[in-house]
Predict the structure.
Amino acid sequence: MPRIPHYHREMEVPQKGTVILLGPRMVGKTTLLAGLPHSLSYNLLEPQLELELRSRPGKLLEDIARLAPGERVFIDEIQRVPELLNVVQIGIDKHQLDFALSGSSARKLKRGRANLLGGRAIVRTLLPLTMKEMGESFDLASVLQLGSLPKIVAEFQMGGFERAWDYLDSYAITYIREEIQAEAIVRTLGAFQRFLPIAAESNGQTIVFSNIARESSTPSSTVKEYYQILEDTLLGFFLWPYDRKERKKSRPKFYFFDTGVVRVLQGRVGTPMNSVERGILFETWMVNEIVRINEYLGKRLELSFWREHRHEVDLLISRAREVLCGVEIKSGRSGLAEATRKKFQARFPNAPLYTVSLAGKSQGETLTYPDFLEWLRRL
């Protein structure tokens, strides 16, 4: 029987103090936090335990009162009983305990008054695997089709595409639709299910909320709320224009957190990629990879895209409002239009404009994706 692969994560989890580790389901939060020394653990995905602690949060207080200062308590999927955060605060302040908390919904935690832990906890976000974490087993073609969730990558390495596709299809049904329903954050699940594939088809593109609303037969205000749900449950994120005047037009881009999940929601599981889809998936993976490096290495970079009239560049990387570079992501051989390059250089004279390519060799400001990502890590 093939050995299950182990991936060494780049994120460093603090060994002392209280940490809240956020992230979508199945990115490895439990594995990472369970590896920390702890005296008590609670998995709130267990229905009986969830019900017990929901009806009597004081049980947690009784349990932790027996621990010595400095001991740690691990609570998995804390957003399922956010009321426990009040007990966690008592545990930190009164009993001088450390906690390791995982959660897949920032929305539920906000409603659970997670701000009470402000200044008491280090908050980190865990995302799918980076290229570096996959190491020698990294294969871009399979990543574009299947994504980078640890479980899916492992299933592909052990059993190939068919086995990985089955798990990926199950993920979309079980951990997206059912979790949204279980948390009761949409009034009409049918409308949300109509919205999901349409949102997936618009992945990586400028979002026109009225168009999405028309296609999904859903009011624009509801569509905006649905996108906010995707962001709050860490299933995707908005990328906003650099220009604040452009931001007022409310036309951001939206990227799902994983290329495999995008393909499932689009109904493309098991189908080959055409050149257009490959280009969008490559851009989605690159933007997500940059987000992961930024998060894991604590670079505090600001990401946006640049648009001025008919000119557009996929990504601007800034720090403290200083533009460090522009990034145009290309899967084919066509380069950036010279007029756009000149316009960008006139607007940002001190920032290089890199073209990041799927293949070929690095030369000048044209870089292969491994070379660009290495440059980013050293930045």
Observations:
- Residues 161-182 form the longest helix (22 residues).
